[in-house]
């Protein structure tokens, strides 16, 4: 059984307010006028473009303002949606690397419990919450996909540089949750492909402070969304539980 992006028509994007999540929403809406997207955002000031998109595509796009790290909020959203709601594709694009009062540690000397707990929370709890409350909405009878946007720096095997202790640890923990959910779903949701996906360096708020001197190619959010959808499309059930890069290659855990 293969995932077919162009036959499936319903997606849920968690973290669709800006960056990679917003670019995914835009591209899914463009697939066809029948394609329906539910997108969440947290901070409305960052989500103006999504709100405008909702006005432009009132029949295709529904948007909900929630904090995706809140168990109550995710549970409430699952209650607000109709029982007959179906999703073929669910993508968690939420992630935190830095904020006004938080920056990734260059050295262990900068480690702080508060920073670690905040980054850990935002980067790890969303996927299991979504798996818990939205599993019932995953369509049966054809391949569906539950995709978490992770990061290559979360690979323990690939870690040659160190630094960014909290972010790296949180993405490694997210990867473990993805693997665990894939094992559980193989028994009870065996049509769902569960993936962790590295999007590649992308020009967004998250990467902005770190892309000036990078040797990596910096993609636009539009290029990244295209790459992500290409990697997901035609995935087999046997791919469930993999950690994949934006070019389709497999990343070591
Ligand atoms: N950009 C890159 O180069 C790159 C590379 C590797 C991996 N990634 C991963 O790609 C994913 C998308 O990131 P992006 O590049 O699109 O960055 P972005 O534009 O900063 O988007 C981050 C997303 O996370 C949400 N978010 C941030 N802080 C949050 C918090 N405290 N609580 C709840 N939600 C929060 C944001 O929503 P609000 O603003 O509404 O809170 C937004 O939806 C992340 O998982 C990131 O780790 C990005």
How are the SSEs placed, and which strands pair?
Layout: E1 10-14, H1 19-31, E2 36-41, H2 48-56, E3 61-65, H3 71-80, E4 89-92, H4 113-124, H5 126-134, E5 144-149, H6 165-188, E6 192-198, H7 221-232, E7 242-245
Parallel strand pairs: 1-2, 1-4, 2-3, 4-5, 5-6, 6-7
This protein binds NADP nicotinamide-adenine-dinucleotide phosphate.
What structural keywords apply?
253 residues; alpha/beta; Rossmann fold; 7-stranded parallel β-sheet; 7 helices; globular; binds NADP nicotinamide-adenine-dinucleotide phosphate
Structural features, described:
35% of the residues lie in helices and 15% in strands. The chain is an alpha/beta fold and 253 residues long. It has one domain (10-245): NAD(P)-binding Rossmann-like Domain (Rossmann fold, 3-Layer(aba) Sandwich), CATH 3.40.50. A seven-stranded parallel β-sheet has the order 3-2-1-4-5-6-7, with helices on both faces. The longest helix is centred in the last third of the chain and has 24 residues, at 165-188. The radius of gyration is 17 Å and the shape is globular. It starts with 9 loop residues before the first strand and ends in an 8-residue tail after the last strand.
How many angstroms does the end-to-end distance come to? Answer: 25 Å
Bound molecules: NADP nicotinamide-adenine-dinucleotide phosphate
Low-confidence stretches are: none
* Total domains: 1
Oligomer: single chain
The CATH topology is Rossmann fold
Instruction: Quickly count the helices.
Output: 7
Biggest sheet statistics: 7 strands, parallel
User: How many DSSP-defined strands?
Assistant: 7
Q: Summarize the amount of helix as a percent range.
A: 25-40%
């Amino acid at each position: 059984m293969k995932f077919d992006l162009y036959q499936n028509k319903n997606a849920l994007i968690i973290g669709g307010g800006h960056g990679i999540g917003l670019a995914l929403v835009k591209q899914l809406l463009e697939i066809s006028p029948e394609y329906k997207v539910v997108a969440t955002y947290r901070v409305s000031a960052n989500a103006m473009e999504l709100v405008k998109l909702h006005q432009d595509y009132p029949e295709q796009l529904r948007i909900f303002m929630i904090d995706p790290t809140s168990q109550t909020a995710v549970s409430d959203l699952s209650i607000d949606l109709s029982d007959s709601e179906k999703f073929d594709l669910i993508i968690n694009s939420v992630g935190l690397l830095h904020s006004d009062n938080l920056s990734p540690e260059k050295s262990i000397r900068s480690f702080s419990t508060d920073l670690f707990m905040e980054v850990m929370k935002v980067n790890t709890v969303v996927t299991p919450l979504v798996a818990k409350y939205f599993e019932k909405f995953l369509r049966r009878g054809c391949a569906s996909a539950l995709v978490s946007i992770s990061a290559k720096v979360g690979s323990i095997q690939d870690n040659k540089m160190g630094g960014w202790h909290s972010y790296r640890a949180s993405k490694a923990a997210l990867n473990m949750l993805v693997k665990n959910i894939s094992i559980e779903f193989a028994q009870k949701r065996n049509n769902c492909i569960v993936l962790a996906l590295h999007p590649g360096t992308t020009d967004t708020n998250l990467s902005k402070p770190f892309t000036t001197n990078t040797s990596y190619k910096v993609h636009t959010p539009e290029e990244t969304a295209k790459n992500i959808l290409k990697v997901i499309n035609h995935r087999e059930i046997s791919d469930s539980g993999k950690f994949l890069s934006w070019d389709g290659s497999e990343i070591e855990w």
